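re: ur msg from earlier - yeah i can do the D-xylitol-5-phosphate complex, just paste it... oh wait u already did. ok heres what im feeding in:
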Amino acid sequence: MKHIIAPSILSADFANLQREIEMLNESQAEWIHVDVMDGVFVPNISFGFPVLKAVKKYAKKPLDVHLMIVNPEKYIEEFASAGADIITVHYEACTHLHRVIQSIKNTGCKAGVALNPHTPIEALQDVIADLDLVLIMSVNPGFGGQQFIPNSLTKIKAIKQMAELKNPKLIIEVDGGINELNMESVIRAGASAIVAGNAIFAANDPIQTIAHFNKININLSSV
Ligand code: DX5
Ligand code: ZN
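and the outut:
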């Protein structure tokens, strides 16, 4: 099975965003992961619609938009028209999660739900069949460059089991603290999409690092 690499531009050089996006276009990354933070759901503010639109102008790959915001239902259509291809909302931020998922699908985008490290996977039992993607947070959301939480591996295995029963096509994406050393264990646990920010953008040669991430994929292609 081929695994998707989704570099997070949270760790990119914002003063040279066009150059960073063009670098990702040339790389072996499949998606571009876009972290939107509102300073309320998470203790950090990143960027919003104008930056997403600017990224869309240059990106030749799908934009995987991770909304770390409260009341995401208010902004789904606007994120879709700003250029999102996949929209992921947090379980913890949605009172009417089922409705939010349907509204993402109505825009034509793929629909994802993210779980914070403390949220049990059972919370998704009744909506998992409706989803294109589940995002397992392997750090507490809000910042790039944090340490991978080891218990995430148990969660990935458990959501993989649930998906096999209820939604075999579900993409299991994992986000936070992934690097060249722990990526293999994340894939072996059942991840099908890997987000990496710091490990890619802080590297001397991001293109090479993405290629290496991809090679780990290929070596594990029987998983
Ligand atoms: C964290 C974000 C992540 C972050 C990952 O809140 O959702 O996407 O950018 O960055 P690293 O790979 O540096 O942990
Ligand atoms: Zn993210």
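cool cool. Strands lie at 4-7, 32-37, 63-68, 86-90, 110-115, 133-137, 171-175, 193-196. ping me if u need the other ligands too
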